[in-house]
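Predict structure. Chain length: 341.
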Amino acid sequence: MVNYVLAAAARAQATAMMAELDAHRPGAAQRLTQGALAEMQTWPELTVRRVGEAQTGARCSVAGAYEPGPPPQIVVADSASPARQDFTALHELGHHLQQNSFALMEAFAHQPDRGVLLEDAACDAFAAEILLPAPLVEHHLAADGPTAPDIVELWRASGASRMAVCVRAAQHLPAPGHVLLLETGGQVAFAASHGLPPLRRGSFQGDIPTIAQARAGQGRAQGPTQIRYRDGILGRELHAQTAPMDGYLVAVLVTDSAPWRTFTPPTKDTGPQAREYICEHCDEEYRSFEPACSLCRVPRCPECGRCACPARVTERLCQGCFTLHPPPMFADGADRCLDCS
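Prediction complete.
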């Protein structure tokens, strides 16, 4: 099954990361709150550089990168605001902590994807935890979940980056959903997800219902919508609310229990459902949205790359290397291929 990291799992990992940080650098969390990038540049065990955004590699949800070295290096895009640079630096510090601690890496072993999604989500949660203390967050975000205007108010009051505020808000969603930061053109600048497939930074959402309405008006809108994933695939219908955020648009989307409405039952799962298949060649069980073969109507297996069509050449299994080979690779009557005989 595909693994969608819950905000609670990422937050639990972030709490363990805070303990790891305090064990190695007591009091560092407080100093990082006052200026993360400046503080980290004084640490002799890390090299911290600011470069153009195109030079960061941008493999994360932020404009930064971590290279384990040696020596370990953190790269932050200098095109961002100081608040965003601090969030990015802390996100990359999260990678550094997790990739250098066996205790933290243990959490990855329980994830179907070996922790790829959890590691990145935990980096966001760790950065947001440092920049936005719990009392401040709880003062601005209601117990029944964040509204889009609440998120804007928390951002103004905290001085933290928009990204950090989005992560904190996603931790308080009352149901599966997203908190999106959208550029004026409709592209996702940042996405914090809870219990739903994560959204890629840079994906275009500007023409989906509610978002399109907000862009055409004053930035405020609410109603049902469907998020667009890879190749134009639409997810399930969600309750959405937006608010302007000084040149950006923040959007809160949930499956149910929308805090801006009196009663919101769960939306119908109108998104496409991936079919399950069992590969006829390697017995791998898999799900796929990939285009199906025009002959057998089965998409290719991600393990062996084959659909359900029979092989064009009859293959035999070598008893030496246990690899399938075409008949010319065997001598007459031999059960081992020419390479093994």
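Summary: The mean pLDDT is 85.
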